[in-house]
């Protein structure tokens, strides 16, 4: 990844089931507003990443970690001309909850309090997890991941607020989301969706933004990419996955997929296929 070249590898290691792994160096890359079903634990090794989170820009430089809870809208871009280089792990909410229950006193749903934490030691642990996965060392990869998550929860952990639908606006947004999930491939227009729900388009737009941090069309693109990832994980070719989730064709999927995941769907699928083809590996 020398010079100005942008490169990224997004993969899974069969001995860390359900945990996505990433190594990347970006310069011009700009992640659009999106969410993850998993936690994001990104360790910056050089440069600066800027990401919009919680209403303001956050800056993570060398030795810091960018920490994003599941279903939290955020963006990402370079904060300096030379870009940023980082390694990231994406553990599932269930795994983080299990680690929190075993190693911390946190109650309720665990999560991170601050989106940026300067902790070179924890950042180093994340890079060691990736190195162990690349070297095929399952004992080290699993151990280091759990140690890293425990440290981060003890230093920067808290209980996430429960998401309860109390207001009429929140209930309206939830109903709209359910419609979009059900009709992902052929969604209605904003005007038609609002009419189906018995409200006006601007009232629906305001309610949806307040509930989910983005307008319905942005949320739908994010949801389509999530659905496409699940299909690619299951072995579906990118062209078929694109049409199944509502994109016009593979290039249409590719544009949005790369802007959210960081790698093209073909490269993403090849890494999954490599894991499936390799089978269990001895340590």
Automatic annotation (TrEMBL):
<dbReference type="Pfam" id="PF02311">
    <property type="entry name" value="AraC_binding"/>
</dbReference>
<keyword id="KW-0238">DNA-binding</keyword>
<keyword id="KW-0805">Transcription regulation</keyword>
<protein>
    <submittedName>
        <fullName>AraC family transcriptional regulator</fullName>
    </submittedName>
</protein>
<dbReference type="InterPro" id="IPR050204">
    <property type="entry name" value="AraC_XylS_family_regulators"/>
</dbReference>
<keyword id="KW-0804">Transcription</keyword>
<dbReference type="GO" id="GO:0003700">
    <property type="term" value="F:DNA-binding transcription factor activity"/>
</dbReference>
<dbReference type="GO" id="GO:0043565">
    <property type="term" value="F:sequence-specific DNA binding"/>
</dbReference>
<dbReference type="InterPro" id="IPR018060">
    <property type="entry name" value="HTH_AraC"/>
</dbReference>
<dbReference type="InterPro" id="IPR009057">
    <property type="entry name" value="Homeodomain-like_sf"/>
</dbReference>
<dbReference type="InterPro" id="IPR003313">
    <property type="entry name" value="AraC-bd"/>
</dbReference>
<dbReference type="InterPro" id="IPR037923">
    <property type="entry name" value="HTH-like"/>
</dbReference>
<dbReference type="Pfam" id="PF12833">
    <property type="entry name" value="HTH_18"/>
</dbReference>
<feature type="domain" description="HTH araC/xylS-type">
    <location>
        <begin position="174"/>
        <end position="271"/>
    </location>
</feature>
